[in-house]
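Why run this: before we spend reagent on co-expression, it is cheaper to look at a predicted model of the complex and decide which construct boundaries make sense. The entries below are exactly what would go into the expression plan.
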Amino acid sequence: MISQSLKIDGGLSLHYPLEIRWHGRGGQGAVTASKFLAETVLALGKEVQSFPQFGSERRGAPIMAFTRISNDPITLYNTIDSPNILIVLDATLLKYPQVLQGFKENGLLLVNSEEKPADLCNRLDNISGVIATVPATKIAIECLGKPIVNTAMFGALIGITKLIPLEDALLVMEKKYREEFSEKIFAGNLEAIKMACKLVQMVDTTLANQQTNAVNLQE
Amino acid sequence: MSVRLEKVALTGNQALAHAVRMAKTQVVAAYPITPQTSVVETIAEFCAKGEMDAHFIQTESEHSSMSACIGASMTGARTFTATSSQGLALMHEMLHWAVGARTPIVLGEVNRALAAPWTILSDQSDSMAQRDTGWMQFYCGNNQEVFDTALLAFKLCEAVLLPAMVVLDAFVLSHSVEGVLLPHQELVNQYLPLRETLAKLDPDEPHAFGGMMFPDVFMEQRFKIEESMDIARGVIMECATEWDALTGRLLKPLHCYHTEDAEYIVMCLGTAFGAAMQAVDQLRSKGIKAGAIRMWQYRPFPTQELIDTIPDTSSLAVVDRAVSFGCGGPVGTETKAIFSGNNQVKVYNYIAGLGGREIRSSSFEKVFSGMMENTASQNKINWLEVRQ
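The model came back. Tokens follow.
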């Protein structure tokens, strides 16, 4: 039977269709991450849709990308107003109110940050659900030698949601992208996915005591 | 028939390029323009890798692309080009020529608004402006349909000797990734055998083409084109039925959602349909008999299908993503003409979604309330969600 919701570590349930909005800066690879997520989930037999924000792109400028994941055919083509998963590739973007705009109550917020999730949670007003952080820039620099954080953010997303088994995701990566990159860059990206999958941390505000429920998935 | 099918993640433009490859297209002549570029880029890559055996001609303009396509098609080659917006406008002269010369050509048209002012985003004014050229036009609703429609378009246009446009919304389909089933090559070969031509440009067997026609025959030549448009209606159904038998996917002139008992219906073309269906669900949950239609086949115009679909005493709002200034939306105007003798069906015309503005479920709810509360005008153009 197809599950109608995605349960996160015994706490929060996210209902399908999953509507994911990615916020990043031009050059960080948000659009590619959204596309790669769609490709991996498609291989598992889900219905998917991935698209960038349409407009002019330039390096460093705030950009958005969108992913829909569903058990049923997707017919809606509008940009995602109220995501139940919000992924922020650059924490400095959180100062813009439109980034958190429409974020569904009890959704999942994943931010590229070295900050503890509880601290980030306290800093943001009126936010509920799972708040997760991952030091994606650090991971990217270590694995790739440059701050392209998309694979790390992808790894963190699967670490938190278990949306796809890590092995399956790596397999799709192998099949789709090995030929597109040099051996070194490809291996670095695989490493970034694995490392972020381990290093992502979260708090679940829907559970009674958020401090004691802080989970470090590395342990 | 059991064949192995594989769903791959493709953008609308890639899906179109794969259809052109699997159709064993022999000549592709094109000039790049956003948001079409990745169609011909992907095809060029297929050719470079040897996955496709076609003559790829990069011309110096769209006018030249269409000219090259006409020449290629006259030699009997299966022929394709793709363009958008200003590019299609530049082709205009040769679009007429392609029809008059009776050359089957498939054109991938990625709907982009026309300048000025500059924009690269979607509306349907570029292809709608070519509605009188004699090209058949099909507006796709998703990437799978882009692939399926392109194959049907080759089969159809080679049968009726008229060119066809496969139309998709800029970015919303052209750059969105979805799962697309690519059939086995053998299945495509069975559906779409190599093109056969009786009269063609051939140095070994010279003929003269494109000579002057005097008034004694010119009108008959034009009548033949109209006759072929009528024949196309039936051929479209035959091609769609055959494809359905092979794949289980049926292409239909009109896609209808809860129209059987509907009192209020909205009609659109392209990807806005998903939002329209969501609005219908919303209204149905309140007990209002709402329905939605997506028009896939625009030329030849699905006159009889519309008459058969729209219930008597219902209200119909046609939401156009194009405008003929001083008159109305092209689809709205033509739909009104069909029902002009029917006092029971009220037809409204809305203009929405120009230059990439999103049409959301809430937008369609406004269209429905316009009809229900009588705030919409039947005699004027209703501009949706516009600052006046």
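Residues 210-214 of chain A have pLDDT under 50 and may be disordered. The interface with chain B takes residues 35, 38-39, 42, 47-52, 54-55, 74-79 of chain A (CB under 8 Å). Bring this page to Monday's planning discussion.
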